[in-house]
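Forwarding these from the shared drive since the link keeps breaking.
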Amino acid sequence: MKHFTITAKKSVTVILVMFLLLFAAYKPYEQDIIYPDSLLKHIFILFYFIVYNTLGMIHEGGHGVCYILHCPEFITAANGTVFQLLFPWLLGFISKKQGNIFGYFIGLFFLGFSMQYTAWYISTAHEGLHLSAAESFLGIDGYHDFNYILSTVGLLKFDWLISGIVSAGGYLIMFYACFKMAVSSWLDQSE
């Protein structure tokens, strides 16, 4: 069963490769403001905004599930990130189960993107338990999940190392997914 035409595969692959290259260059969460001085930056900022906010809502939904189920505090803190990482992986896994291997690689790509944001979040854990409204996804004061998690397990002083490992893993997954999408798009010409 075919889910994508060759043209659609090529288009999606080009868009995600461009996003990956721009993401590596701009790392929007590490900068105060990205000034869109070109059409390419405008498109990147729009795409990033959509993906970041979608994953942010899923992250907060993970916490919300725990508020409803009255989970322990550690599980509640971790569940946002668990949902944020599980969601794109699960979409990819379901695609693969349905015979849509290209959709699987799209899911992997967004898993890698989610890991990048998670890595940045981990890297800020040493800054304290409280997040100001300006730093919070929801725009209200809150708790820093990874400050709590890493403090609880005694690894807060290694936030930089854990962040680096997660970031490297995220980039590897994104590059792998783009490579596999490119191979699928350009070498498999059967419609």
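-- next protein --
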Amino acid sequence: MSAETRRRFAENIRSGAPDLALACLLIGAEVLPDLDVAASLAALDALADAGRPHLAAGDPPAVLRRALADEAGFRGYGDDYGDLRASLLHEVLRRRRGLPILLSVVYLEVAWRLGLPAAGVGLPGHFLVDVGGTLLDPFYGGRLVSRAETSARLGAALTDADYEPWSVPAIVTRVLTNVRAGATGHGKNLRTRLWAVELAMLVPSHDAALRRERGEILIQLGDYVAAAAELESYAEAVEPVDPEAADHALRAARMSRARLS
């Protein structure tokens, strides 16, 4: 991603009305710098146009299911969870498959283009779309699901608060969290994890711990000066509320600088 594209991402996500599709596509520009964002937005427009004739049926959930699952073939697959492409909107539009949250982004964008009331609902380990009070599961072909069924499947006692609509910044943050998680552990990709952290730091009200994470990644990449500066910045931010974490970060910063001597 170029500095200009990151500026565009920051400007969008910090605006009063951030564009979800644009934010997700600009995430994809980290992987494909010459990504044709306009073409992907046009693809969403085309999906909405294809679903528009179904509006006469007067059943919003059925409109989305028919247009996106039955006709366009969007759905999830179990082997996508470790695939970075499943977290990139342009790839999801191309492959017609992705993680629950990215499939939900497609459903949301098409619903909004059709003037349908829709909101994203983030649950522990899953993501749904609320269409006028009806829950759809894009990962499973847009099928209707109840709260009881969802609680049973996730093995969690969910409350009304769990079904509150998510804001665009919250959805984007979770997309980036998925990218970070996929780039951690066996076969980890530090560069991927780094850009995901750096984009998450551009989202308003981001977690201060991202600074610590960025510093730790930079140490692993051998950028010891930048790592120390980031860890010191993190320590300054958290010292009033968590002196122990601040002290740990400062010690890590000193160790990072020591590697240069």
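The chain has two domains: 3-168, 207-258. The two ends are 33 Å apart (CA to CA).

- D.
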